[in-house]
Design goal:
- A hairpin with a 3-residue loop joins β3 and β4.
- The chain is an alpha/beta fold and about 475 residues long.
- It is globular.
- It has 18 helices and 13 strands.
Length: about 475
């Protein structure tokens, strides 16, 4: 669903027909690397849309072999694009190779994406097959074996998305108004998001923007949980924790949780070894945060409530005790969700001018390549707050880029890594995949002191961030 929704608008905006052919009898739950499979499919679909000027793009997903505990899934992406010459097929998988440079000079990308795709598939025991006719189109396909966890048919993924939204109103959540929590992050936008998510559970956290400020607050207050960002300038999260422990500022009963945008395999063990009790990956999802609160807060200060349809006013409870992080436009939230699903809105919904304006803006941002559903999710489902965060992301583009350029000028690659890491996290939070991917690559390069790569590719990051920010501000002005 996430993959399809992220590509759908791009294809339609380009005048292409985009259709999915998904086998509804596939098992509903599988065991595998969903992130990597999604990366591969997204890359293939993005390329198909990018290199197709007219016609269509089709996604096929089917089961071709199945045993009691395993299924082989065949995924095909077919397009009516420019195609590939037979003599160029062998070059397709070479890193940084661009086919027909002159013909494709206006198309973004380096060719690295396909090299990554083949490597990821190889690591999953698969390979990429290519069929292409020059001038008529291409078909990319692969087969990946997955372990079956739940053999019941998955059904229509679009209908399941609708059902999930309806079920959301019946979910149990926690309220812990007496919880004492300190959130530490050098980026104020990240702190805003964390504060907003915690307020949904009635928690008003203390905030700190540096390790030094965190130590001061720890010396003055008792906290049940400390949410401590790893990558901060001057004193990072690990250094802050070590100093806090040496100063006896972490009493028994206080849980310290690392916040990181670099959640990779083995991350939990790394943070446990560094003295943390646990870690959360950024952007923090509301359900994961609630599970963490339920796990580590004292049981006597936690209440479990059932979600009610009514929304409260700013800082007030609704009829079931849910704390509203801010006044929300519930209709706008519903419209945003519905926009990613087929079907028209009712006349009554269209008559709501405020909701329609919000929907129009968000739809335009989605067409520009921003994953609105992902961003709204990271903001706890609060559309109004998401818009606030998106606007802040765009308004501060010059300040953030100047910080990066200053670090680059000083050849302080550690500081550059910290600052670009923060930008990566912010881009992920609002759903800006293009800036996220560029920032991610630059972070890795700066950590390796690869000055050449950083200088060469920083310009692309800056241009992408500036263009996206200008587009956002154009929508909201």
């Amino acid at each position: 669903g996430n993959v399809v929704y992220s590509i759908e608008h791009r294809a339609v905006d380009k005048g292409l027909k985009f259709e999915t052919h998904i086998d509804t009898s596939l098992p509903s739950v599988l065991f595998g690397d969903d992130m990597r499979v999604s990366q591969v499919v997204t890359n293939l679909l993005t390329n198909a849309v990018k290199y197709t000027n007219e016609g269509r793009v089709d996604l096929y997903v089917s089961g071709i072999r199945r045993t009691e505990d395993k299924v082989s899934i065949n995924i095909r992406v077919k397009d009516t694009g420019i195609g590939i010459k037979e003599e160029d097929l062998g070059k397709l998988f070479e890193s940084f190779t661009r086919l027909e440079e002159t013909r494709n000079r206006n198309i973004e990308g380096t060719g690295l994406g396909m090299a990554i795709v083949t490597k990821l598939l190889e690591m999953m025991g698969s390979r990429l097959d290519v069929k292409s006719e020059y001038g008529k189109g291409s078909e990319f396909s692969f087969v990946v074996d997955q372990v079956i966890v739940d053999p019941s048919p998955m059904g229509d993924f679009r209908q399941k998305a609708r059902d999930a939204m309806e079920k959301q109103n019946e979910e149990i959540y926690i309220v812990a108004e007496n919880a004492k929590i300190l959130a530490v992050d050098d980026n104020e936008m990240n702190l805003k998001v964390i504060r907003n998510l915690l307020k949904l559970s009635g928690i008003n956290p203390d905030l700190a923007t540096s390790g030094e400020e965190a130590l001061k607050k720890l010396s003055e207050n008792h906290y049940h949980i400390v949410l401590l960002d790893h990558m901060m300038p001057h004193m990072d999260g690990i250094e802050t924790l070590q100093k806090a422990r040496s100063m006896d500022l972490i009493p028994k009963g206080t849980t310290v949780i690392a916040l990181t945008a670099n959640a990779v395999v083995g991350a939990r063990d790394t943070y446990l070894d560094a003295g943390f009790d646990d870690y959360l990956s950024k952007p923090v999802e509301i359900k994961t945060l609630e599970q963490t609160l339920a796990k580590y807060l004292p049981k006597d200060i936690v209440e479990y409530k059932k979600k009610d349809e009514a929304e409260g006013e700013d800082g007030k409870k609704d009829s079931n005790g849910r704390i509203s992080a801010g006044k929300k436009d519930k209709k706008a939230d519903e419209d945003v969700v519905l926009e990613f699903l087929p079907g028209d809105f009712s006349d009554e919904e269209q008559d709501d001018n405020e909701a329609s304006d919000t929907l129009r803006v968000l739809n335009n941002l989605e067409k520009h390549g921003i994953n609105i559903s992902e961003g709204v999710n990271y903001c706890g489902g609060d559309t109004a707050f998401y818009i606030e965060i998106v606007t802040e992301y765009a308004e501060n583009v010059e300040n953030r880029l100047s910080e990066l350029e200053e670090a680059m000028k000083k050849q302080d690659w550690n500081l550059y890594a910290v600052k670009v890491h923060a930008l990566k996290s912010m881009a992920k939070t609002i759903g800006d995949a293009k800036v996220f991917e560029k920032a991610k690559a630059l972070e890795a390069a700066s950590k390796e002191n690869d000055a050449g790569y950083v200088r060469k590719n920083h310009v692309e990051l800056a241009m992408e961030y500036k263009q996206t920010s200008a587009y956002i501000m154009g929508e909201f002005l």
